[in-house]
Amino acid sequence: MARLRYLAFLSRDAAALGRFYTDYFGMTEIGRNNAGDMSLTDGFFRFGIYQARPDLMELRREIGAHHVGVEVESIDETLRLYREFNPRGVVRDEPGNGGDGDVRIHDPENNPVVLSERAFGLGADDTRMPRMRHVALGPLCPETTFNFYAEVFGFRELPTSYKRRTMGKQNRFMGDGKSNLAMHPFYNGTVGFEGRYGINHFGFLVDDLQGIVARLSKVVPTAERPLRPYEDYRVRDPEGNGIDLSFSLGFEVDVDRWDMVEKKSVETSNARN
To answer: How confident is the prediction along the chain (273 residues), in pLDDT tens digits per residue?
Structure first.
């Protein structure tokens, strides 16, 4: 089964950003190189934090969360599905030892998606807290991006997404069984929405909401957001990346399946959408 397991950043100061995530989100450093790039994990997701520089040869070079990675059972089969979806799609081998992915493809808006058959060098999920369970994209066309993840990776549309459809909204929500993937249109009239092309924000499930907010509020901006589908608070890391903190509800990760603080990944038909 294909699953999101990787998030890459372009950073002004990779070492400082890495310290932020180890100090405040309990992530573990698992590697760094002479160029200053760092790798972290929460036990399931791998963060690749790249020191921004021209020789990375990225199409988009702004600072921030840059691209995602998907663990797949077969890269060859995934490439076959990708070429069916987009016969002219670009495929590129990723440099390095495979920890940051083996092959790169691109979504319909040319955002990179890296593939790994080796779980990005990680083992099984250790379900530590906090743990990342949400990535939100900011595409121009959510429906086309939704179709890409559905047809190439088999991600499934969630009840919250169906509900938004009946309200006439373009937002789409998908699950892979472990994580929630959202598509929020870049041109969005929702009050409080912050347009960001590519990766708009990402989110962690936390079991001590007030404690982590108290610690984070001393170093970065925090804001309570009780009316959003999954988030209790929105915070920012030192380089401006938006982070959802979810405690009261958790994240919808599959059809009628939520990853929660007290009842982890419990199937329920009564969850609030």
So the answer is: 899 999 999 999 999 999 999 999 999 999 999 999 999 999 999 999 999 999 998 989 999 999 999 999 999 999 999 999 999 999 999 987 778 999 999 999 999 999 999 999 998 777 889 999 999 999 999 999 999 999 999 999 999 888 877 777 788 999 999 999 999 998 877 766 777 899 999 999 999 999 999 999 999 989 887 666 778 999 999 999 999 999 988 999 999 999 999 744 444 434 444
Tokens of 243: 């982070």
Give the domains, in start order, of the chain with CATH numbers: 3-121 (3.10.180.10), 131-267 (3.10.180.10)
pTM recorded for the entire structure: 0.92
3-state helix vs strand vs coil in the chain, percent to 5 = 20, 30, 45
CA distance 260 to 269: 14
C-beta of residue 266 within 8 angstroms of C-beta of residue 260: yes
